[in-house]
Amino acid sequence: MEIKQLEEVASQVRRDIVRMVHGCQSGHPGGSLGCADLLVTLYFDKMKLSEKDGKVVFNMDGKGEDLFFLSNGHISPVFYSVLSRRGYFPAEEMATFRKLNSRLQGHPTTHEHLEGIRIASGSLGQGLSVALGAAKAKKLNNDDRFVYVLMGDGEQQEGQVWEAAMFGPNRNLDNVIAFIDLNGQQIDGPTQKVMDNRDLGEKYRAFGWEVMEISEGNNISAVSKGIDEAKAKAGQGKPVMVLLRTEMGAGVDFMMGSHKWHGVAPNDEQLAAALAQLPETLGDY
Amino acid sequence: MKKYTFTEKKDTRSGFGAGMQVLGQQNPDVVALCADLVGSLKLDAFIKENPERFIQTGISEANMIGLAAGLTIGGKIPFATTFANFATGRVYDQIRQSVAYSGKNVKICASHAGLTLGEDGATHQILEDLGMMKMLPGMTVINPCDYNQTKAATIAIADYEGPVYLRFGRPVVPIFTPADQKFEIGKAWMVNEGADVSIFATGHLVWEAILAGEQLAAEGIDAEIINIHTIKPLDEEAVLKSVAKTGCVVTAEEHNRLGGLGDSIAQVLVKNLLAPQEYVAVDDSFGESGTPAQLMEKYGLSANNIVAAAKKAIARKNG
Predict the structure, then answer these.
(1) What is the pLDDT of residues B197-213, one digit of tens each?
(2) What are phi and psi of A263, to 5 degrees?
(3) B112: pLDDT strictly greater than 90
(4) Residues whose CB is less than 8 angstroms from the CB of residue B296 and which lie 6 or more positions away in sequence, other chains included
(5) Cα–Cα distance for residue pair A278/A258, rounded to 1 Å
């Protein structure tokens, strides 16, 4: 897909995010907006997905296709919007986000059989392990597709992440491309103040990962080039860790540059102000 | 009292290892994971015959649970193995989110459960695992009684789709169940039919219940003994049928009295059929170092304790 088209999808995804969070007055818009460009580029351009008659088809085992795992499950709005816009489930269902009897739970889950979701996430630190397990299964199955996983930067404070970080390179799982959303914010404030991750690149290099950076994580052209670079580095014995620098709240000016919008919903006026900055490209749900 | 004899004693963990060897030969989807306890889990034969299907995780149990959940997504049947303490309490949230809530076909196989781990002491002697695991929606919880039954259970759970907690132990115990048994998940196993008291036992306590049954028989008491190898789903029909006949109950388990088999049975009874019940279980405490036999004696988990509990239950019924 052309960069311009991807940007149009990302604009709609951002509208979906703020509308979903506004609709239930609950959820996490900041990180969702920041990761919109990555997820759109992966799902609409880079990932090989199972398709039939031009439509995506969901198979839990994901054999022969690329897989994506969202470890920082609280940014579920961006995940739901991208999955829906990619064709996994009807866009109208986004109106049920976080409401009673919805398949779009506050944090993603397989429990309600929502197409596109392969594991529950929300309790942090577990997704890298799951991705490595799925990658190992692909190796055992002689399946040469990739496993992508996204984690938060605050999430790096969880111990399990480092158990997984040790495992991946030691077992040569070079079919894994992991991303850390480096937005520098977490609930209690700037990550540097709450618990400084220091040099994550050096840490992962020391654990044996191939480490690279995408310095403009909200520039789809840069994200696209970065993913291509990551794919080129994969398959050479080491898993790949991509440090993705994003801006929390990207695309909505008043939500940027602060942790304030980590888990706060916009009111009616704020919603209108946000939507005014985001062209409707695919039709609101 | 039906006569039970044995010619050999073996550890239930060796039954697990033997079951894994069979699965390695029969089911190409079975994968084993272990967190640096290969010898203790008796996985040597499986690893020797299927090196590509064994995953050494190092001492990182949380990662092991996540890896197992991920492996199911490619159609594998992962058996994640370590000591019971590290397979449950240490990784409860990982099991809860990535396995149980996600509905993944992971088999959590836990050795060295309970007091009979022995000299290592309370840090390793988990007595709360059955309770924790049975409280997870969708989790099947199995605690077999001897080598043969553990081997059969290991083989059986590979064919069952869904998360399972399989608990076994360290010490050698008599082998008294048939080598060729078919293991049916959720189906209680009648050890001895009787009329005076129902003794529901699980794991290592089943043999103690048999010894207790012999003592009781010598005193003219006719005990019904049932092996509850599957704590969840519980065979409620078997429980109620037995208690309808005997009118009183003893439960016996190598577990805290809070949250284990006894509480599961009590819940069935309080809803359906009130009957006096006595617990043979650890009285809400941690264990300590000692030999398995010393610990079972000190913490009240021996045949003598079952005999005393049976008499008390019968007295309450008649009182």
Answers:
(1) 999 999 999 999 999 99
(2) -140, 45
(3) yes
(4) B115, B116, B204, B208, B254, B302
(5) 20
Tell me whether residues A119 and B102 touch, CB distance under 8 A: yes
Cα B44 versus chain centre, distance: 22
For residue B254, indicate whether it is catalytic.
Answer: no
pLDDT of the residue at B43? 98
pLDDT in tens, A83-109: 999 999 999 999 999 999 999 999 999
Give the integer Cα–Cα distance in Å for A209 and B174: 50
Determine what percent of chain B falls in helix, strand and coil, rounding each to the nearest 5.
45, 20, 35
- What integer pLDDT is reported at residue A259 of this predicted model? 86
* pLDDT tens column, B261-281: 999 999 999 999 999 999 999
Choose, from B8, B49, B52, B61, the residue flagged as catalytic.
Answer: B61
Q: What's the token pair of residue A243?
A: 């440090």
| ipTM value | 0.97
Specify the pLDDT at position A282: 98
- Residues 6+ away with beta carbon under 8 Å from B135: B259
Residue A258 is predicted with a pLDDT of 83
Is B206 within 8 Å of B227 (Cβ atoms)? yes
Distance between CA atoms of residues A23 and A201, nearest Å: 38
Q: Evaluate whether B225 touches B246 at the Cβ level (below 8 Å).
A: no
Residues 6+ apart with CB under 8 A from B215: B303, B304, B307
Identify which of A127, A126, A138 has the alpha carbon closest to the alpha carbon of residue A172.
Answer: A138
User: Which residue, B300, B234, B230, is CA-closest to B267?
Assistant: B234
Burial class (CB in 10 A: 0-12, 13-18, 19+), A62: buried
Residue A167 touches chain B, beta carbons under 8 Å: yes
Cβ neighbours of A159 (radius 10 Å):
11
Chain A residues with CB-CB distance to B70 below 8 A: 119, 129-137
Q: Would you state the pLDDT for residue A257?
A: 81
Residue B62 with chain A: CB contacts under 8 Å: 125-126, 129, 159-160, 163
Q: By 3-state DSSP, what share of chain A in percent is helix, strand and coil, each rounded to 5?
A: 45, 15, 40
